[in-house]
Write a structure and sequence with these properties.
The chain is mainly α. It has 13 helices and no strands. Helix 7 runs antiparallel to helix 8, helix 8 crosses helix 9 and helix 12 packs antiparallel against helix 13. The longest helix is centred in the middle third of the chain and has 34 residues. The two termini are 23 Å apart. This is ABC transporter permease. Pfam families: ABC2_membrane_2. Keywords: Membrane, Transmembrane, Transmembrane helix. It comes from Halocatena marina.
Length: 260
């Protein structure tokens, strides 16, 4: 179980270097302040939905250089000189970072619930439980994406470029891509309505949209009902699992076939 050794080291290194404590302090400060400012103005479900960008940003920022930086510095050769395969390195790194992100998300929600309790009382327990599970899944899937990117490129510059391009794509340009594609396919002219269903399916493949879809479908306080398969909780879960597994598999495939 060599990958467990790698996972343990991946967890302990940020603890020893105090990077984890800095991250927890930042999360506690930001979420505590946001909760204090938003409590009473917005419903709890709106409050928890707004946390997705922070968790995604931290997951990517803490994972994009996990393998590429060691590969660039040459320290990865030392790691692979032990009885660790390249597969062990990728899977162990992804597991370790995922556990760390689960801890960060848990701490953030504890702070949020604590501040909300002081201000207005305890939020709905189902809302907190569902949000915690969905937020952990989102953070873990983005960790898998970042580790997959990090293992597929040779330098840190490339991994940071690809990782934060993905972040901007998810939060800024994903919904515009189908319109651009339709515009090009229509001879550089505005396509006529109605909008085809594949556009809505494509939008639903955004991990942030998947997070919101799951939360809307599961939380009783949110008035949401849909018979469309791509607006159901199970579809959102599959989307997040896809963003976790596919980048890791692609990154592992490239990593095993490239020179250090």
């Amino acid at each position: 179980m060599s990958w467990l050794v790698v996972a343990k080291r991946t967890i302990l290194d940020p603890v020893r270097s105090r990077h984890l404590w800095v991250t927890l302090a930042l999360v506690g400060l930001v979420l505590g302040l946001l909760t204090h400012l938003m409590t009473g103005r917005y419903a709890s479900e709106v409050l928890f939905t707004s946390f997705a960008p922070l968790f995604v940003l931290i997951a990517i920022a803490r994972s994009y250089q996990t393998i590429s930086s060691r590969r660039q510095s040459g320290s990865l050769r030392v790691v692979l000189s032990y009885p660790h395969s390249r597969k062990d390195v990728v899977l162990g790194t992804a597991l370790g970072r995922s556990i760390l992100m689960a801890g960060v998300v848990s701490f953030g929600l504890i702070v949020t619930v604590g501040v909300q309790f002081i201000n207005t009382g305890l939020p709905d327990s189902k809302l907190v439980l569902y949000t915690w599970g969905i937020a952990v899944l989102l953070a873990v899937s983005m960790t898998g994406l970042a580790v997959g990117i990090s293992s597929s490129v040779r330098t840190t510059n490339r991994s940071v470029l690809l990782s934060f391009t993905a972040f901007l794509l998810f939060f800024g340009f994903w919904q515009q891509l189908p319109g651009v594609i339709r515009y090009v396919l229509n001879g550089l002219s505005k396509p006529a309505p109605p909008r085809p269903e594949w556009v809505d399916v494509f939008v639903a493949l955004n991990p942030i949209q998947a997070y919101n879809t799951i939360l809307s479908a599961l939380v009783p306080a949110i008035d949401w009902s849909s018979n469309l398969y791509y607006e159901t909780a199970w579809f959102g879960v599959l989307v997040l699992l896809g963003w976790l597994l596919l980048p890791l598999l692609i990154g592992l495939w490239r990593f095993e076939r490239s020179d250090l």
